[in-house]
Write a structure and sequence with these properties.
two-stranded antiparallel ribbon
Amino acid sequence: MAAGAERLNYNIFRNNARTQIWGNGTGGTQVVTGSFNVPRNQTRTRNVTAYGQIISNQDASQGDYVDTVTATATFN
């Protein structure tokens, strides 16, 4: 995440113990999986909880840091 030229590294986790890094399944990350049926011409909602954590001991200035996280859903 960034505040101008300043950067802070962070991870997004699947669990509140922050031991399962959410990712694409490579490099020790975990994918979020699951299934549910959506009848024709109807909608369904699936909520997924994620937990963030800024990596400690980074030399960054005080400020408002922002980032955009993109998640991809694959439908079969």
